[in-house]
Amino acid sequence: MPHDNSGTHVVIITGLSGAGRSQTSNILEDIGYFVVDNLPTVLISNLVETAEVAEGDRSRIAVVTDSRAGVGEADLDLALIDLHRSGIRTTVLFLDADDAALVRRFEETRRPHPTDGTSLERAIADERKAFEPIRAMADVIIDTSELNVHQLRDRLREAFSGVEAVPTMRVDVSSFGFKRGTPRVVDLMFDVRFLPNPHWERELRPLTGLDAPVRDYVFEQDEAGEFLAKATDMLDFLLPHYEAEGKSYLSIAVGCTGGRHRSVAFADAIGAHLRESEVETSVHHRDIDL
User: Fold this and answer.
1) What's the number of domains the chain is made of?
2) Same structural domain, 160 and 180
3) Do 25 and 157 have their domain in common?
4) How far apart are alpha carbons 207 and 40 in whole angstroms?
5) What confidence score (pLDDT) does residue 6 get?
6) I need a surface site. Which of 25, 88, 205, 276 has the fewest CB within 10 A?
7) Strand 249-256 relative to strand 89-96: parallel, antiparallel, unpaired?
8) Torsion of CA 132, 238, 176, 142, to 10 degrees
9) Which strand (E) or helix (H) includes residue 63?
10) What was the pLDDT predicted at 247?
């Protein structure tokens, strides 16, 4: 008798060496996933069939496939097609980090990089280039450069805890300051530096966009309300279309100069709008304490 795969969810964990695959595996196991490490991509479908027999029709399975297993674009594409034809919901999770973070982690652990290279920096560069097509196929990309294990656990729980049989869009909204660099991983970005800056108001400078006086200052500008209405109207249009195409995770970033006032107020307002629309939404403020 064929399996009913409507309740099965498979997470394919991949990404750069040193970006946190082992920690991610442990976290997903903690929240109820059956995790298999270092599996060749061509064997994923066979594993899923076996796990369904052992775990039941509502299996939650996570598979790590990376440089050690020789993951390739063509093999991953075939595996995704196979799973899709079987009616299995699949999420490709790509773990990324900047070069400086990767070098620091390998030097701290004194482990060799799995990719051959004349130097650690060259090995990282070669692997990053080889993984560009895989990264482009990812449904969720998490940049772990500045995340500790507790923050990574929070991100993964937000993305994967309580996953239901019917895919629903999950949205992450973050604020940031342009002077500290733009986020490395983001789907949509809004720039609110065109608005008057509360930083130049002495009584508002020590506050943040989470405080009512700053929020009121920002949104008493006519153009602020108009921009928020246009941005949320665009999101209301886009989200159902993204979801119809199978996208289950969307990251939105809102930036101002320092990341403490205007972007914080706007990110919170966008998050509130999405929650009112019953979209599962998390909000983060990257630079609010800097």
Assistant:
1) 2
2) no
3) yes
4) 51
5) 54
6) 276
7) unpaired
8) -40
9) strand 60-64
10) 74
